[in-house]
Amino acid sequence: MKKLALLFGMSENERRGFLVLSIFIGLIGITPFVYSFYVRQTTDDILLISSLVEKERKTLEASAESVRVFHEVVQKPLFPFDPNNLPVEKWKMLGFTERQIQVIKNYKSKGGRFRTKADVAKMYVVSEEDFKRIAPYITLPKTVPIPQRNVTSSSQEETKPSIKKIIVDLSVGDTAALQKIRGIGPVLSSRIVKFRDALGGFHNIGQIKEVYGISAEQFARMESSLVLGDSSIKKWAINQLPVEKLAQHPYISHKEATHIVRYREQHGAFASLADLEKMHALDDDFVRKIAPYLDFN
Description:
Layout: H1 2-8, H2 12-75, H3 88-93, H4 98-109, H5 117-121, H6 128-134, E1 168-169, H7 175-178, H8 186-199, H9 216-222, E2 226-227, E3 236-237, H10 243-246, H11 254-267, H12 273-277, H13 284-290, E4 294-295
Parallel strand pairs: 1-2, 3-4
């Protein structure tokens, strides 16, 4: 009340001076907050600009690397070759990657053979660009001659178009590659990949029959299009993993995982598959199926 009385007792000039002084003190009070906000915003802008510059730099480096690899492949001298007996080193000289070469070798190891140039293009790992680049150098005919069967020159049999043969490596094939096989769509290809990853990899082509939705008839139709590469199988440490982890394997139920862990706690670590076979709670079929995935170290 005294301050109000004092304020009203001031002259006009004194009140104006007091008001100006109050505003000046208020400005001094908020200055640190304004400065802190400005500095923080400036710092954020600098960090954002730096991240954008770094991203652009990496993009340019990746583009430069792609151009370098492209020129290396283009500049490699091409040469006439027969894909049926071409060694790995020669495939590399043609610009093919180790993964592409492995799929081609797997196809040949299963009895596959290239009879025409078009047969090379049927491999899903050989892109259209790759084929156009090497086609003039493949020492194979464009088509397979059809034997003549007592026909006159005016009634020559037309050459039947070859049917594209799809070969997919189950060890590394993704959903896009699997969908190239007749009868496999997006849903089924996704199930196959998920089942393979959950298992830790396929060790036998017949395991694909265990995927939900693949009938015996469908497997018979697609079997000739499937090969199995040399990719390693993920092993499960049977002497270290708890019940919950063991039960995540598609071949091991929670009940079986519990039996395994309890037996291990009572009798010690499993030294080999023979120790697992001693368990009466596990049947022979289970042991046979799970054997390729166990690590006894």
